């Protein structure tokens, strides 16, 4: 029973009114409790990693039972403190029920204005108690492993010499010297003894053989796979919008886009469902980590969303998220390093240890920034699970840059390459690199009513300039061709500015400022022409303009832009040459929707303007950039691309068994024989293969396009044999196997044939005047170059 005299009640009431003494008291409680916890554990805390909370616990050397006793005593102390504070709070609340909201604004909490003193104290106590629980869990985990190790005898903990585990002795030596370098080793039970080293290296990592005296029941019991669930198409995106989160302008932009396209996604899902019929689709658990939006990578995009910055990457990511969700798969979305670590199961420490649990995701979609973050924090698990990763890569990564050893030896190493992934794991914005997978994005598709309104509302003399940042208008020589254009058309711009008109924009240009997407679409529906200044490269805006009935006019580059002569491409993992601002629009759409001219030739430029004004075009959108086209493509990838279980090709130089090829009747190329057995697991289906010997100096990408086909790198293993050259009647006086991204190939001088030694270097890209490359080609679905005719 607690008795309180009147003087005591007055003093309590005064404290509750001002709260200043209690603020110091509450701060003191929190600080004392934290110091008490840390000193009781012997200062066993290591430095934080970037991105960790200030209260993230990381142990170097874990204590014993006495530490858990400290935790229990601290918990009892907190409980007693809370009970006594509760009495005081009830006294104060009963005497003064109405508190001023202004008394609650102090920095030690983030409570709503109505929160009581008791709630504050309880929350602080709960925070400290939560820390104690986390440390107790780590201690219990460590002691459990330590007790199991102690079951064995000292003489049973000598590093074995086993030829099946050649790295074991070296790893044990490394652990002796460096096991304290990362707290994650202590987390997994390493305590400096030989037994703990061997247990870790045999059960957590896989460099040493299992110890015979260990109880293998627990370590061998794998998590039972969840029962398979069939994916069901979704039409309501409201839950996806919740999963995407908020707080960043980039996320707000992406959510608005997904919401605006909801109806089109629903119609596309219905059409694809009817097309697939009774095809069974397993639901995949998918992690989407958008690395370039994390604070650790700088997140340079979010601040520029409202200032005319590039939106192409965010357009693509918004559409990827929508497509995966509409297809019915389970999604987890992260845009911070801390979220990534939590979802992957990263142990405490600096990233040198494997994950604490098997990766719970079938697929991981990320970008180069996210790929680097995963490698830094997954330890050996990165190598184990990297086959599940899909990298969203705008400009593509060619095999010569992807293979670390080859790139280093032959000058292809850049800041973005050398990951040793299957090149098909890189997914591009446009289908310019068949070595990679074409992911794409979507443009809004007009219905018939909207198309009729566009046809009737077009202004024949209105042009809109492609470029929202003032820096794009600094192009040298623009005054010349803009002056010509101004003679025939009214020019409109959508250049961002804050207070005054950007000086780079000529006075005769009507600048609307940065427009929201719906208003920008309305402007395009009125305009006749959408004109590019040569930059940005390969963005979504030209396709949006063409879909809204505009003609797109762009500059031809001579010489073509590449990493050899243009700063923008320098350092990117590709040798691709770009002959115009938007090669896809030029090569896959073309006239009358797309005109590519030399802006330095005034006569050619003016003639193009006159011809465009007389040309009537309807809104046009390639099928592969519709919602249905993207759903179809991603569905096929998820169903058929398996880089974890795909069998490797036969060793180079070995003769295949019965050849599956026959020479075509016109003796120009090889075809898959009709009576040949279908290659098991091959996707695309092998019967779509056509093999050609390219002209000297011709890349396989171009050689296949010359015949109206697409280069298919997954078919290279079928051609990597002497038999393929013989069937094509190529005279090989000698045959060698080497690492070279141009092989298999035939060298005319010397009549030498070369086979590929490294499967990761099979490449559609690349050419040399010395070689005639042996090129695998395939057909493709109309409007969907990523898929062959039988790929669904």
Automatic annotation (TrEMBL):
One of its GO terms (cellular component) is Golgi membrane. Its EC number is 2.4.1.155. One of its GO terms (molecular function) is alpha-1,6-mannosylglycoprotein 6-beta-N-acetylglucosaminyltransferase activity. It is a single-pass type II membrane protein. Pathway: Protein modification; protein glycosylation. This is alpha-1,6-mannosyl-glycoprotein 6-beta-N-acetylglucosaminyltransferase. Signal peptide: none annotated. InterPro entries: GT18_cat, MGAT5_Glycosyltransferase. Belongs to the glycosyltransferase 18 family. It comes from Equus caballus. The chain crosses the membrane at residues 21-41. It holds the Pfam family Glyco_transf_18. It is an enzyme of class 2 (transferase). The lineage of its organism: Eukaryota, Metazoa, Chordata, Craniata, Vertebrata. It is found in: Golgi apparatus membrane. Residues 184-777 form the Glycosyltransferase family 18 catalytic domain. It catalyses: N(4)-{beta-D-GlcNAc-(1->2)-[beta-D-GlcNAc-(1->4)]-alpha-D-Man-(1->3)-[beta-D-GlcNAc-(1->2)-alpha-D-Man-(1->6)]-beta-D-Man-(1->4)-beta-D-GlcNAc-(1->4)-beta-D-GlcNAc}-L-asparaginyl-[protein] + UDP-N-acetyl-alpha-D-glucosamine = N(4)-{beta-D-GlcNAc-(1->2)-[beta-D-GlcNAc-(1->4)]-alpha-D-Man-(1->3)-[beta-D-GlcNAc-(1->2)-[beta-D-GlcNAc-(1->6)]-alpha-D-Man-(1->6)]-beta-D-Man-(1->4)-beta-D-GlcNAc-(1->4)-beta-D-GlcNAc}-L-asparaginyl-[protein] + UDP + H(+). Keywords: Glycoprotein, Glycosyltransferase, Golgi apparatus, Membrane, Signal-anchor, Transferase, Transmembrane, Transmembrane helix.
């Amino acid at each position: 029973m607690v008795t309180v005299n009147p003087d005591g009640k007055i003093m309590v009431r005064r404290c509750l009114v001002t709260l200043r003494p209690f603020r110091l008291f509450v701060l003191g409680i929190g600080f004392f409790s934290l110091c008490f916890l840390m000193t009781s554990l012997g200062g066993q805390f290591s430095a934080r990693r970037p991105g960790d909370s200030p209260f993230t616990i990381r142990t170097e050397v874990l204590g014993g039972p006495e530490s858990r006793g400290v935790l229990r005593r601290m918990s009892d102390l907190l409980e007693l403190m809370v009970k006594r504070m509760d009495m005081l709070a009830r006294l104060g609340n009963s005497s003064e029920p109405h508190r001023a909201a202004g008394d609650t604004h102090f920095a030690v909490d983030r409570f709503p204005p109505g929160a009581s003193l008791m709630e504050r104290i309880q929350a602080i106590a709960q925070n400290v108690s939560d820390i104690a629980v986390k440390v107790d869990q780590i201690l219990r985990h460590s002691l459990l492993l330590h007790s199991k190790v102690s079951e064995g005898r000292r003489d049973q903990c000598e590093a074995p010499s086993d030829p099946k585990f050649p790295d074991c002795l070296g790893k044990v030596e490394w652990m002796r010297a460096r096991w304290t370098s990362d707290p994650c080793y202590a987390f997994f039970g390493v305590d400096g003894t030989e037994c703990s080293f061997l247990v870790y290296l045999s059960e957590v990592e896989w460099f040493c053989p299992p110890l015979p005296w260990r109880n293998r029941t627990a370590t061998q019991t794998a998590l039972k796979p969840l029962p398979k669930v069939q994916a069901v198409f979704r039409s309501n995106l409201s839950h996806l919008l919740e999963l995407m989160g908020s707080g960043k302008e980039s996320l707000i932009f992406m959510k608005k886009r997904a919401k605006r396209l909801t109806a089109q996604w629903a119609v596309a899902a219905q059409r694809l469902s009817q097309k697939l019929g009774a095809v069974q689709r397993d639901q995949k658990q998918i992690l989407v980590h958008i690395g370039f939006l994390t604070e650790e990578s700088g997140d340079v995009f979010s601040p520029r969303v409202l200032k005319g910055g590039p939106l192409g990457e965010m357009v693509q990511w918004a559409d990827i998220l929508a497509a995966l969700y509409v297809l019915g798969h389970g999604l987890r979305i992260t845009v911070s390093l801390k979220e990534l670590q939590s979802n992957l199961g990263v142990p405490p420490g600096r990233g040198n240890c494997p994950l604490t649990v098997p990766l719970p995701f079938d697929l991981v979609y990320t970008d180069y920034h996210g790929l680097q973050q995963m490698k830094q924090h997954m330890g050996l698990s990165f190598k184990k699970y990297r086959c599940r990763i899909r990298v969203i890569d705008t400009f593509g990564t060619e095999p010569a840059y992807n293979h670390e050893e080859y790139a280093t030896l032959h000058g292809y190493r850049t800041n973005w390459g050398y990951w040793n992934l299957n090149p098909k794991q890189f997914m591009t914005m446009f289908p310019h690199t068949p070595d990679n997978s074409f992911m794409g994005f979507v443009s809004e598709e007009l219905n018939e009513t909207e198309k009729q309104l566009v046809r009737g509302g077009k202004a024949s003399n209105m042009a809109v300039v492609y470029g929202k940042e003032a820096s794009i208008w600094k192009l040298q020589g623009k005054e010349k061709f803009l002056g010509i254009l101004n003679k025939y058309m009214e020019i409109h711009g959508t250049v961002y500015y804050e207070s005054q008109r950007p000086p780079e924009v000529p006075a005769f240009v009507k600048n609307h400022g940065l427009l929201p997407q719906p208003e920008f679409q309305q402007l395009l529906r009125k305009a006749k022409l959408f004109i590019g200044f040569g930059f940005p490269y390969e963005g979504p805006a030209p396709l949006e303009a063409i879909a809204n009935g505009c003609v797109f006019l762009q500059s031809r580059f001579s010489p073509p832009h590449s990493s050899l002569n243009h700063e923008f491409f320098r350092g990117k993992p590709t040798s691709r040459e770009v002959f115009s601002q938007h090669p896809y629009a030029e090569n896959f759409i073309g006239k009358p929707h797309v005109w590519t001219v030399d802006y330095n030739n005034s006569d050619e430029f003016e003639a193009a303007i006159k011809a465009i004004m007389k040309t009537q075009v309807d809104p046009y959108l390639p099928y592969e950039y519709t919602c249905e086209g993207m759903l179809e493509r991603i569905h096929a990838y998820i169903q058929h691309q398996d880089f974890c279980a795909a069998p490797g090709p036969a060793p180079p130089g070995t003769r295949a068994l019965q050849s599956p090829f026959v020479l075509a009747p016109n003796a120009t190329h090889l075809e898959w024989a009709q009576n040949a057995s279908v290659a098991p697991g091959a996707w695309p289906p092998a019967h779509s293969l056509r093999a050609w010997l390219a002209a000297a100096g011709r890349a396989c990408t171009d050689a296949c396009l010359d015949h109206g086909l697409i280069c298919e790198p997954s078919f290279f293993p079928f051609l990597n044999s002497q038999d393929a050259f013989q069937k094509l009647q190529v005279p090989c006086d000698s045959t060698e196997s080497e690492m070279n991204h141009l092989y298999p190939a035939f060298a005319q001088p010397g009549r030498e044939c070369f086979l590929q030694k490294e499967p990761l270097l099979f490449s559609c890209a690349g050419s040399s005047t010395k070689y005639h490359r042996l090129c695998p080609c395939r057909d493709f679905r109309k409007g969907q170059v990523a898929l062959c005719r039988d790929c669904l």
